[in-house]
Amino acid sequence: MLIKRPADIKSSEITDKELYLNRRQFMQTASAGAAVLGTGLLAPGLLGPMSTAWGATKLDNVAKGKFSTDEPQTSLKDITSYNNFYEFGTDKGDPKRHSGSLKTRPWTVEVEGEVHKPRTFDIEELLKMPLEERVYRLRCVEAWSMVIPWIGFELSHLIKLVEPTNNAKYIQFVTLYDTEQMPGQRRGILDWPYTEGLRMDEAMNPLTIMGVGLYGEVMPNQNGAPIRLVVPWKYGFKSGKSIVKIRFVEEEPPTSWNMAAPHEYGFYSNVNPTVNHPRWSQASERRIGDFFRRKTLMFNGYEEQVAHLYKGMDLKKLY
Ligand SMILES: Nc1nc2c(c(=O)[nH]1)N[C@H]1C(S)=C(S)[C@@H](COP(=O)(O)O)O[C@H]1N2
Ligand SMILES: [Mo]
């Protein structure tokens, strides 16, 4: 995400100095394995032969959900072959090529911390939550976007089951850590496991879902099987994939991209066309499959649903 300059950013937007400073800063903040800079981040040979293993399985009892956009949907092919999932490599095609090694059964999600009823959910239980199809825009911080027909359930349903204490102000989401299944974790590109966080009111917002599938079927490995977060008004990286732990905490939790590059990626990471990334504009985006760029919308077009969460906050500082 941050390490390589996205192909669709004009080089004129990025000065050598900025690149240099950013690299230097990355060297200082990233954990081991600084050899990642410059050329290919992961030697292809490191990853070994693996196949994609999405045995298409229909999800039943899926209601038509709220908040769906009726914009044209990105093709299944693009949604499943143009991915960011650094646990499987940093090229857009790597997750599809290499995520066949991810074993999604058995799978549990541990819920702990500031809750009255800590609990470990089996994935089969979570698949029985009230599932809805939600067609959401996804806007990556690299300035491309997609429209994805997710299947998932509102995170608020899960939160209510575990009964947060009064101290629960934030939630941290933690991805699987397993260097056998996730070869990208053998390199110190990020501080593994991948971790993300939301403020409690963001997590409770009805737009926030736990995704378990897309296009009517179970989640493809490369999109974060068997269960991932989907937060459509934030940059894509806030939506952690292959979640194994949900921790309720009192303080703002550390998050992987913020730790890697604090000046580029803040805790909030709301889609905001008026606050540029230090190295490129966020005013427009390229919808995958389109030729022309389009304007990026405040909160990715979900302003009506979420603007109230940030009333009185300086979003230039709290980016
Ligand atoms: N565990 C994990 N989750 C992750 C990432 C990652 O590298 N690892 N990349 C993020 C980024 S940068 C984006 S844009 C979205 C991409 O989701 P998609 O591949 O399903 O479109 O996943 C996010 N979730
Ligand atoms: Mo992203």
Describe this structure in words.
With 319 residues, the protein is α+β, with helices and mostly antiparallel strands. Helices cover 17% and strands 21% of the residues. The strands form 2 sheets. Strands 1, 4, 5, 8, 9, 10, 12 and 13 form an 8-stranded mixed beta sheet that branches. β4 and β5 form a beta hairpin. The site of molybdenum atom has 7 residues, from loops.
Instruction: Give the structural class.
Output: alpha+beta
Order of helices and strands: HHEHHEEHEEHEEHEEEEHEEH
What is the CA–CA distance across the termini? 17 Å
CATH superfamily: Oxidoreductase, molybdopterin-binding domain
Count the domains: 1
What would you say the CATH architecture is? Alpha-Beta Complex
Mean pLDDT: 88
* Poorly predicted runs: 4-54
Main sheet summary:
8 strands, mixed
Using the alpha-carbon principal axes, give the shape.
globular
Give the topology.
Elements: H1 16-29, H2 44-47, E1 62-64, H3 76-81, H4 94-98, E2 108-113, E3 119-122, H5 123-126, E4 131-139, E5 144-154, H6 155-162, E6 170-175, E7 195-199, H7 200-204, E8 209-214, E9 217-218, E10 228-230, E11 243-249, H8 256-260, E12 284-287, E13 294-295, H9 303-306
Parallel strand pairs: 1-4, 2-11, 5-12
Antiparallel strand pairs: 2-3, 4-5, 5-8, 6-7, 6-11, 8-9, 8-10, 12-13
The structure holds the ligand Nc1nc2c(c(=O)[nH]1)N[C@H]1C(S)=C(S)[C@@H](COP(=O)(O)O)O[C@H]1N2 and molybdenum atom (MO).
Question: Quick recap of the structure?
Answer:
This protein has 9 helices and 13 strands. It has helices at 16-29, 44-47, 76-81, 94-98, 123-126, 155-162, 200-204, 256-260, 303-306, and strands at 62-64, 108-113, 119-122, 131-139, 144-154, 170-175, 195-199, 209-214, 217-218, 228-230, 243-249, 284-287, 294-295.
